[in-house]
Amino acid sequence: MAPFGTAPSTEETAPEAGQLTDGFHLVIDALKLNGITTIYGVPGIPITDLGRMAQAEGMRVISFRHEQNAGNAAAIAGYLTRRPGVCLTVSAPGFLNGLTALAHATTNCWPMILISGSSEREVVDLQQGDYEELDQLAVARPLCKAAYRVLHAEDIGIAVARAIRAALSGRPGGVYLDLPAKLLGQAIDAAEGAASLVEVVDPAPAQFPAPAAVQRALDILGKARKPLIILGKGAAYAQADDLVRGFVEKTGIPYIAMSMAKGLLPDTHPQYAGAARSLALKEADTVMLIGARLNWLLSHGKGKQWGAPGSKTFVQIDIDPKEMDSNLPVAGPLVGDIASCLSALLDAMGDGWARPPAEWTEAIRAKCEANVARMAPRLQNNNVPMDFHGALGALRTIIKERPEAILVNEGANTLDFARSIIDMYRPRKRLDVGTWGVMGVGMGTAIAAAIETGQPVLAVEGDSAFGFSGMEVETICRYRLPVCVVVFNNGGIYRGTDVNPSGGPDAATTVFVPGARYDRMMEAFGGVGVNATSPDELRRAVNEAMDSGRPTLINAVIDPAAGTESGRIGNLNPQSVVSRK
After folding, report:
1. CA distances (Å), 219 to each of 250, 286, 316, 347, in order?
2. I need a labelling partner for 56 at 20 to 30 A (CA). Which of 24, 96, 493, 579 fits?
3. What local confidence, expressed as pLDDT, does residue 581 receive?
4. What residues pair up with 38 in beta bridges, in sequence order?
5. DSSP string covering 426-495, please?
6. Tens digit of pLDDT for each residue in 114-138?
């Protein structure tokens, strides 16, 4: 990857005297100057021509069917590239559609810039009823890391630079950039415009931890009898893969990986404790968090799965000092970027580091082997209709044979089972719903993954999750992307067997049309559609799709009774204690 800010190699000529430029071209020039060459969005008033001009200037402009999906694409592009992914939307309703993705990016700490056209200030402030009138800046501010409005063409360069730096510096996140329609058409002297552009230098500078903090963390780890490392997606975002591996292997500490950190080290690594997660979390006396947070995904570090209250000592690497002690006391805070912190730890460890006691590592390994052996027969079944284990067992083999392929995954049961069943072997190859657990990220994520990496993409979707963004299969076909979508179709949300408790004619709230054929959606747009009813059929269809690179959708028929309420987080569903009988 080229250093950030490296613009495309083009022949630049100085503007001639008296030549004019305008807001449209200054936005494009500012993005290109900073190496941003792809825009995701939906065209319309007042940004239609901005997309056309960007394409004419050599940028890649990917047009979606819905702004939220374009925003999800920009968010995951930021995660994959460590450059802000850019989403371009129309005003008011289109802007609002993009806001969920912007908040999603901020919550997940991914750099993204949402650029939206808007109404003129004088009309909005007097509430005079402009076309799609909305005070977009005020709406966006609580949902992102920073928000800026540009009123004068000569300020576009600095505004884009500020947006880039805000998105990337410290803890990355989403930024909103408001461009009123009148701004885009403003004309200024071309030389003045060129001089106003800003190339961002070192937008995410290294932040080194204090030496005393490094020694404190090592002292804590060195005294641990049952240490555990938890890798989060922040460690994957950092792209410090060699340092992560070097630290884990030098310490000898067992580790587990949160879903999007899977593959930083292969899931087959001898120190990987994923198959013994329950034992590792409960029994560990010291837990080191690298790019992971003690949020709901880790039960806030509390509850039965964590053993007795107060039984854990925590060491945490995070670039934001406010993250420390967010749920439980952190005895060893290391504030800094992951690469700098791991480098400092490795340097300070020297050559005589004592590895964890063998009884601890052997207990983890024995539990992993027992659980893997117990699960193996379930993953090899060829049941018709399919269950989640048989279907995911087939896909597990495909990912093992194609470790460079990118796996996109969302749903309830489809997501929860796949997290533990499908092993990953390379970093940043598993992309899913992230911290918020947002439904509908699948197609936008799959499209951006194919665009940004050029690798084949396997998107494994629950039928409910697919419904949020399914129309984007047309986008996949339009751009001829190597994306294979597998819809796990069990006819409903969680399962397709619920009944209307009132006995009335309406379907139950969680039930879809029985026997739906999602594969025919892809056929309607010129792609390949396949209906698979067994794991063997599913395996053959996915392999053919991945070999061909053609847009493909496989309707994987899952037993309607398969699945559990809310997957593995049914405990988050409150239960009524009142009976109206």
Report:
1. 15, 11, 14, 14
2. 96
3. 62
4. 60
5. STT-EE--TTTT-TT-HHHHHHHHHHHH---EEEEEEHHHHHHHGGGHHHHHHTT--EEEEEEE-SBSS-
6. 999 998 888 888 888 888 889 999 9
Report DSSP state, residue 197: -
State residue 132's pLDDT score.
Answer: 86
Q: Tell me the average pLDDT of the chain.
A: 95
Give the contacts of 332 (CB within 8 A, at least 6 positions apart). Answer: 213, 216, 217, 220, 221, 288, 313, 314, 315, 316
Residue type, 169: S
Measure the CA–CA gap between 508 and 523, rounded to whole angstroms.
29
pLDDT tens by residue, 171-192: 999 999 999 999 999 999 999 9
Residues 6+ apart with CB under 8 A from 288: 217, 221, 227, 228, 229, 230, 253, 314, 315, 316, 317, 332
**What mean pLDDT is predicted for residues 82-90?**
98
Residues 6+ apart with CB under 8 A from 110: 75, 76, 78, 79, 85, 172, 173, 174, 237
Amino acid occupying residue 183? L
Give which of 143, 142, 138 is closest to 102, Cα–Cα: 143
Q: How many CA atoms lie within 13 A of 562 on its CB side?
A: 23
SS3 58: coil
Task: Summarize the confidence of residues 241-264 as an average pLDDT.
Answer: 98
- For 161-176, give one letter per residue: b (16+ CB within 10 A) or e: bbbbbbbbbeebbbbb
Each residue's pLDDT tens digit, 415-453: 999 999 999 999 999 999 999 999 999 999 999 999 999
Q: Which amino acid is at 495?
A: R
Nearest-angstrom CA–CA distance, 137 and 132: 14
The CA distance from 424 to 426, in Å, is 6
Residue 228's DSSP bridge partners are 287
Separation of alpha carbons 243 and 249, rounded Å: 10
Q: CB atoms < 10 A from the CB of 190, how many? A: 19
CA distances 346 to 133, 219, 253, 411, Å, are 55, 13, 14, 39
524 burial type by CB count under 10 A (0-12 exposed, 13-18 middle, 19+ buried): exposed
When pLDDT is averaged across residues 102-108 and rounded to a whole number, the result is 98
Stretch 248-269: mean pLDDT, rounded? Answer: 98
pLDDT higher than threshold 70 for residue 338: yes
Which pLDDT does position 404 carry in this prediction? Answer: 97
Average pLDDT over residues 544-573: 89
Residue from 110, 85, 92 nearest 31 by CA: 85
Query: What are the residue ranges of helices labelled H in 144-239?
Result: 156-168, 181-184, 190-196, 211-223, 233-237
Query: What is the distance of C-alpha 554 from the center of its chain?
Result: 23
